[in-house]
Amino acid sequence: MSKIAVKVDDLTVAYNYKPVLWDIDLEIPEGVLMAIVGPNGAGKSTLIKSILGILNPIAGSITIYGKSYAKQRSLVAYVPQKGSVDWDFPTTALDVVMMGTYGGLGWIKRPGQKEKKAALEALEKVGMLPFKNRQISQLSGGQQQRIFLARALVQDASIYFMDEPFQGVDATTEIAIINILKELRKASKTVVVVHHDLQTVPEYFDWVTFLNVKKIATGPVKDIFNDDNLTKTYGINYKVSIQK
Amino acid sequence: MSSAQIEIQLIASLVAIACAIPGTFLVLRKMAMISDAISHSILPGIVLGFFITQDLNSPLLIFLAALTGIVTVVLVEQIQKTGLVKEDTAIGLVFPALFSIGVILIAKNANDVHLDVDAVLLGELAFAPFDRMLLFGVDAGPKSLWIIGTILIITLILLFMFFKELKLSTFDSGLAASLGFSPVVVHYGLMTVSSVTTVGAFDAVGAILVVALMVAPAAAAYLLTSDLKKMLLLAILFGIFSAISGYWVAHWLDASIAGSITSMLGVLFLVVYLFAPNKGLIAVIYREKQQRIEVSLLTFLLHLKNHVELEERHVNHLNEHINWQNLRSKIVLDLALKNNMIEIDNNIVSLTEKGDLFTSQAIDYIITNEDTQIEDMKADFFLFRG
């Protein structure tokens, strides 16, 4: 058994006293490519945001390699949902990617040449170097998603959390993202992705977590990605054709 | 120019700069209305502070009044958090309540307090030079100048120190939180600066102008640039411009300085709104018109690509086949000719090689929505600029 990268114990999160996550226990082994699936309102984004300390849970504990998130920030990178920011914000693609370096800099210190170089390399990896000076509102949805991905890559983390990176992207971007995911796995990074398209789960991921307010199941895709768990997560008689 | 005139313009300009900086971030955070709330609800703070200190320029008074501003923000957020009302309603509930307490306090004590509601709303910039700062018995300029100067210097220092944090938490508060830059701390830092600036500017320019100076220059700058640093700089320049031009308009019209500065801000925003190169009204209307024509062009080219029959491609029958009016047909035909996309031989229109390639690429883009292949077309056609 490999090391546990992320451990979630008895996590309960509520909005206005209504639980959106209930008593979640979850272990994410190091080096897996994990999809988190579940219907709308299942608490998938909430789970990620709680692990990252963006939301305050009402109960439970979360550790990253055995320590609290606050101590392990530098090990973790985050790709928020594309729709969570205002793309009319006056800034360029390069500048957004540079934001990924802010965590390493800490308060007050400004990014310099080293940070810029890292950002340019990350832009190159996602095929967005030619657009580095473009205003972010002038990018297509797929290009914006790739900018977000580059921003996470520049953090050079061990664990990556991505909130629906495939949402509304074109084919080029989808391929770019998959290639990055594969590269991250090759480098033994841990990647956790909130994912919507059940059809592609077996193709893209090796681990899966079924979530619907409570945790339904978690484990290797080949063992647990079946109609039984899908039905438990999505409601009665939910079937998809799964190529095994 | 008399020294009093120079002092007034200097005070107005410093106030404008001090307001434009937090104002830029308020506008980007879509929180412009919170400056309205703060500017009104600091009134009870000012009145209570005046009871205690008996000095409108005392630092304690500024501190107390700024505290009322923070209280406003907290109250608005608490009411909003109940989920019963939206943010604008919460703002509308909080600041009139606090403002009215201030109005009653002034009215009840009107005899011994030298504050009145008119002065609070519109300020008394013209009187600012009369209240002098004495350092070791020597005249060191108007007190307002010292107050707003101090506030401005502190604001600038904070801006230079925390520019990165402000930018990040304004653009993406989720990432800011996950990287350990508490968005709550940055938020209340910005609210504190806004409140202190409002109090400092309040005495000179009044509650309404403070709001205008925070919102209008930033909103105008937003329409002109896509770079945050340039936006800040432009907002500052617009603020200074309206402060000085407003002063002279007031001088010529013999009208209120605060009112004239606010009017100049309105005029300035209107001009930018109309004529801004990309986001301005005229540019937008022009772009939409061009896009309509380009869609027509594409439809026309596709028609040519799909039909080899001569009668479908005859100049005189084109409008019948495509069901367009003559004028539209002529505009499209001219545009296609200008771009060397068609050639007309014996009144029969056919695609050139360039036109054929363009049509294939454009259709491909529309179907696949892949951006890469139309990058070089963006320069010539509005249609592909998203």
Write a concise synopsis of the structure shown.
The complex is a heterodimer of chains A (244) and B (386). Chain A is an alpha/beta fold.
Q: Largest sheet of chain B, described in full? A: 2 strands, antiparallel
- Could you state the CATH homologous superfamily of the largest domain in chain B? ABC transporter involved in vitamin B12 uptake, BtuC
Averaging pLDDT over every residue of chain B, what do you get?
Answer: 87
Q: What is the succession of H and E elements of chain A? A: EEEHEHEHHHHEHEHEEHH
Describe the structure in your own words:
The complex is a heterodimer of chains A (244) and B (386). Chain A has a 6-stranded mixed β-sheet, with helices on both faces. In chain A, strands 2-1-4 form a 3-stranded antiparallel β-sheet, with helices on one face. Chain A is built from 10 helices and 9 strands. Helices cover 33% and strands 25% of the residues of chain A. Chain A is globular and about 50 Å long. The longest helix of chain A is centred in the last third of the chain and has 16 residues, at 171-186. In chain A, 45% of the residues are buried. Chain A has 244 residues and is an alpha/beta fold. Chain A has helices at 44-51, 69-72, 93-98, 102-105, 113-125, 141-153, 171-186, 201-204, 221-224, 227-234, and strands at 4-15, 18-29, 33-37, 59-64, 76-79, 159-163, 190-194, 207-212, 214-220. Chain B has 386 residues and is mainly alpha-helical. Chain B has 2 domains: 3-278, Orthogonal Bundle (ABC transporter involved in vitamin B12 uptake, BtuC), CATH 1.10.3470.10; 282-381, Arc Repressor Mutant, subunit A (Orthogonal Bundle). Helix content of chain B is 73%, strand content 4%. Chain B has 14 helices and 4 strands. Chain B has a two-stranded antiparallel ribbon. In chain B, strand 1 and strand 2 (138-142) form a beta hairpin. In chain B, helix 8 (183-224) crosses helix 9 (228-253). The A-B interface holds A 16, 49, 52-54, 70, 73, 76, 78, 80, 84-86, 89-92, 96, 99, 102-103, 105-108, 110-111, 130, 135, 137-138, 140, 142-143, 151, 170-172 and B 28, 30, 83, 161-165, 167-168, 170-172, 174-175, 177-181, 222, 225-228, 230-231, 368-372, 375, 385-386.
